[in-house]
């Protein structure tokens, strides 16, 4: 531990130690700021905006700035009383959407308050990150009066060596006003949601009402739903804009239909009716019950569960898997010999994994057996159909029964069930479960590695936590922020790709990346926020 750390007062020294344990360096702690969207219409913003408007009016023309962060440590509002402070923040990239968590940038009067849940003053050199040592700050936590959950932090900052002794009472008074407005807004919203729940009440049908800080269910729903199911319904409720109907399979294996409707006048409140499907699912794909010798094609991007799906569909025993990798390692002759032996045996199922990677002569060999339409059955696995060419495309075209798998990012509603299954497969304790917040964060990720990547995240958690609830902070850092749910236009996707490549090329150094792109650092930060670039 450094002499500099030893000279600090206790709460600051402890914060520095946490920052060092997180692998941060004072000289580079701000080099890798991450950005994400913040909820501009949520309860915190609604409660804080009028209070901050009045406070900022009082501070107009002074050297003071106000910063509001949400419970995830993201800057939700930033206001500066003079141009000097505004330029200083712009140059550092400290703007709306930036993460000021202690583990991300070290000791500061916002992230440290979130960590300790108590107010703190951080003067000049007490900041961990060197560029922040020009500032003195006072941060105060904002708690929801009903749930006592921390909703965010309000901070006043200035370019000065020591914070003014007038700041604590000034900020505390503003926070008290914000908390009162949170309480008032919660009462109105909860009353309206409760009225909708009571109006829909029925003993036979499962009914769930979900709000920002409220969850209500009747006995039928309590008997029907598990913790994973409730987490999934929370995500569905957050996505409902008007009305929606979706079929789901609960963790018990029961198929249900969920009718969800937004409740007007509430802050994100939704009413959900859950109805078991008494009949077997109509129009179940014929692929789930394949004909005796009919070939089946399983297509999708790497990691989307192609191999697992192929094995599940191979219900004619015994099942043998021949992969394109084996042809590359052992040679085409050995692969052809093994395939021929299986064909002569005339029984079970052969999964050919990677027909798009096989040499043409082996594709022709598989095609010749397929044309005979006799045992063994073939289950063929390949990448996305649009990427197939030549003989592989022709072979895939022979399969009229197909299972086309989409990327994991396009089916976020499956993540709670996938996580539960992965926990069981990894032998995790039955009490270990992911909270709705953690599942929500996972469901918003881009998942370029699909199921393999999700499993790696679940394994990471299992290695570090044996029992209890897995919260957002227990996830790997790159998976705690939310990626955009909207689809970008082609030109935006192209710009996003160029920026991400520049950031990767310069190891996340935004100054060098901006220079390489021919734009200012401020413009780069703005584009990162607009394009939701948080992981690179």
Automatic annotation (TrEMBL):
<dbReference type="InterPro" id="IPR009057">
    <property type="entry name" value="Homeodomain-like_sf"/>
</dbReference>
<keyword id="KW-0805">Transcription regulation</keyword>
<dbReference type="InterPro" id="IPR003593">
    <property type="entry name" value="AAA+_ATPase"/>
</dbReference>
<dbReference type="InterPro" id="IPR002078">
    <property type="entry name" value="Sigma_54_int"/>
</dbReference>
<dbReference type="Pfam" id="PF02954">
    <property type="entry name" value="HTH_8"/>
</dbReference>
<protein>
    <submittedName>
        <fullName>Sigma-54-dependent Fis family transcriptional regulator</fullName>
    </submittedName>
</protein>
<keyword id="KW-0804">Transcription</keyword>
<keyword id="KW-0067">ATP-binding</keyword>
<dbReference type="InterPro" id="IPR058031">
    <property type="entry name" value="AAA_lid_NorR"/>
</dbReference>
<dbReference type="InterPro" id="IPR002197">
    <property type="entry name" value="HTH_Fis"/>
</dbReference>
<dbReference type="InterPro" id="IPR027417">
    <property type="entry name" value="P-loop_NTPase"/>
</dbReference>
<dbReference type="InterPro" id="IPR029016">
    <property type="entry name" value="GAF-like_dom_sf"/>
</dbReference>
<dbReference type="InterPro" id="IPR025944">
    <property type="entry name" value="Sigma_54_int_dom_CS"/>
</dbReference>
<feature type="domain" description="Sigma-54 factor interaction">
    <location>
        <begin position="405"/>
        <end position="463"/>
    </location>
</feature>
<dbReference type="Pfam" id="PF25601">
    <property type="entry name" value="AAA_lid_14"/>
</dbReference>
<keyword id="KW-0547">Nucleotide-binding</keyword>
């Amino acid at each position: 531990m450094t002499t500099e750390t030893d000279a600090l007062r206790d709460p600051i020294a402890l914060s520095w130690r946490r920052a060092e344990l997180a692998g941060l360096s004072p000289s580079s702690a701000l080099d890798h700021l991450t950005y994400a969207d913040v909820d501009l219409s949520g309860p915190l913003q609604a409660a804080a905006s009028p209070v901050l408007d009045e406070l900022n009016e009082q501070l107009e023309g002074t050297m003071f700035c106000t910063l509001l962060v949400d419970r995830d440590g993201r800057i939700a509002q930033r206001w500066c009383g003079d141009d000097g402070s505004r330029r200083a923040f712009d140059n550092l990239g400290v703007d709306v959407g930036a993460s000021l968590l202690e583990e991300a940038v070290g000791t500061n009067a916002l992230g440290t308050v979130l960590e300790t849940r108590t107010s703190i003053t951080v003067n000049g050199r007490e900041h961990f990150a060197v560029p922040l040592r020009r500032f003195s700050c006072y941060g105060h936590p904002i708690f929801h009066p009903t749930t006592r959950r921390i909703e965010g932090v309000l901070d006043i900052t200035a370019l000065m060596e020591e914070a003014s002794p007038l700041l604590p009472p000034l900020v505390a008074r503003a926070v008290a006003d914000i908390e009162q407005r949170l309480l008032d807004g919660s009462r109105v919203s909860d009353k309206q949601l409760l009225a909708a729940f009571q109006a829909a009440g029925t003993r036979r049908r499962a009914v769930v009402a979900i709000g920002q800080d409220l969850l209500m269910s009747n006995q039928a729903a309590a008997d029907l739903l598990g913790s994973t199911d409730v987490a999934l319904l929370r995500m569905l409720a957050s996505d409902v804009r008007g009305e929606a109907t979706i079929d789901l399979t609960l963790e018990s294996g029961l198929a249900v239909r969920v009718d969800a409707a937004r409740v007007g006048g509430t802050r994100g409140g939704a009413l959900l009716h859950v109805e078991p499907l008494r009949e077997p699912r109509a129009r179940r794909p014929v692929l789930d019950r394949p004909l005796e010798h009919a070939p089946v094609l399983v297509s999708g991007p790497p990691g989307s569960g192609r191999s697992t799906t192929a094995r599940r569909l191979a219900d004619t025993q015994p099942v043998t898997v021949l992969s394109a990798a084996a042809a590359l390692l052992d040679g085409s002759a050995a692969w052809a010999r093994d395939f021929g032996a299986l064909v002569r045996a005339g029984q079970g199922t052969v999964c050919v994994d990677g027909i798009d990677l096989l040499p043409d002569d082996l594709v022709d060999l598989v095609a010749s057996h397929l044309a005979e339409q006799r045992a063994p059955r073939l289950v063929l696995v390949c990448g996305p159909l649009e990427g197939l060419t030549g003989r592989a495309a022709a072979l895939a075209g022979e399969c009229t029964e197909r299972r086309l798998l989409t990327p994991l990012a396009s089916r976020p509603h499956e993540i709670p069930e996938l996580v539960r299954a992965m926990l069981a497969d990894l032998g995790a304790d039955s009490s270990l479960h992911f909270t709705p917040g953690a599942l929500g964060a996972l469901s918003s990720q881009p998942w370029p590695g699909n199921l393999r990547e999700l499993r790696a995240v679940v394994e990471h958690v299992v290695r570090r936590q044996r029992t209890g609830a897995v919260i957002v902070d227990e996830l790997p850092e790159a998976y705690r922020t939310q990626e955009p749910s909207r689809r970008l236009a082609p030109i935006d996707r192209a710009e996003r790709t160029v920026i991400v490549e520049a950031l990767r090329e310069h190891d996340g150094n935004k100054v060098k990346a901006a220079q390489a792109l021919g734009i200012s650092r401020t413009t780069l930060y703005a584009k990162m926020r607009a394009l939701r670039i948080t992981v690179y």
